[in-house]
Design brief:
With 443 residues, this protein is α+β, with helices and mostly antiparallel strands. The protein is elongated. It is a multi-pass membrane protein.
Amino acid sequence: KISPWTGRFYSLLDPSYAKNNIPIIASVSEHQPTTWSSYYFDLQLLVFMFPGKCVSRTGPGRVGLYYCFSNLSDARIFIIMYGVTSMYFSAVMVRLMLVLAPVMCILSGIGVSQVLTTYMKNLDVSRLDKKSKKQQDSTYPIKNEVGPPPAHRRCCSPLWAPQPHVASGMILVMAFFLITYTFHSTWVTSEAYSSPSIVLSARGGDGSRIIFDDFREAYYWLRHNTPEDAKVMSWWDYGYQITAMANRTILVDNNTWNNTHISRVGQAMASTEERAYEIMRELDVSYVLVIFGGLTGYSSDGWISTSSCGWCVSGGSTTRGGHIKEHDYYTPTGEFRVDREGSPVLLNCLMYKMCYYRFGQVYTEAKRPPGYDRVRNAEIGNKDFELDVLEEAYTTEHWLVRIYKVKRPGQPRALQDIKLSTEFLIFARRGGRKYFYTFVWVE
């Protein structure tokens, strides 16, 4: 029995299907449309050798698809269909760039071969012309200006007369492009596609490499400082990592097919603290984990409209999340902003508060006000707030990962807000006895 098509397959035929009907599918970054920059970044020279026709003074260069259309055969018709359909599907989903890569190599190889063949032939013909001219000058006292051209020259049209200097130049240019493509492919493979996503790196102002190991730091803390039966709520992107490295139960992960379950997590993230607390108690959540890049400039965090938070809002707009209206999180001009001009609904939802808790007191850049988000390039609009249903449990060195503990029902507020920042141990001797006094500075 053949199972029915899922939303991902329908999205290939109708790119707007998932966004309008199943936002959870559209929230996957690999399901986003491919940008033009991604094509050039991944394929470089192949982008120009794939489609059309190259013409110069010395001759036509039939490149890629144009050559296959000009010389139709069963094999070339197959390549044409493969190339066109792969190009379409890769434009719909960026993950299908892998499907486009083989046919790109085939058609670009045909294009490079045709260009080199054309100019190499012209270069050979020009050498034969010089040799024939020398023989003619030494044998005949009078040149035959009217007679037919030699047989080796009749293969070329007079319009495309051999130009040795141009042919040599084109061959050198093509060799340069191929060498550049080799270096580009090696660089992309080593820098973009070989680095683990769990350990991040960047270049400092002096060129030194800076390592951001916040993910492993957070997962190590979860593994050693939380009960074994603790349940962690986070967006599904980090489910596998938490399960494997922290050995803790998570609500949703990369293999969760229950869209309703994912939408409940989205509703909790996009709701106010009071409504989110009801959902978290319903799901028996112990800890909440969020990814935040406002301090370091990590743009793949969970608080941009095209990433987790925006999809939390979209995914939460279901039947059980009737209080969530996606348009309420945007400004009247349709912008997704975190500064003072942002939507009040957005500035008071749980996701915002978990990301920006205590961030309003932090200076991130010189000559910038405290609470300046380096990803959104804006000063946050809601700085002075406290958490009512959560308490900060752990924040990593670069603030990339923030972990909050869900407060127990009925826990006294006075005890909830105590933060131990400094502890003093004083030794005293009275009447021959030793006394230890511990003083705690309470904020």
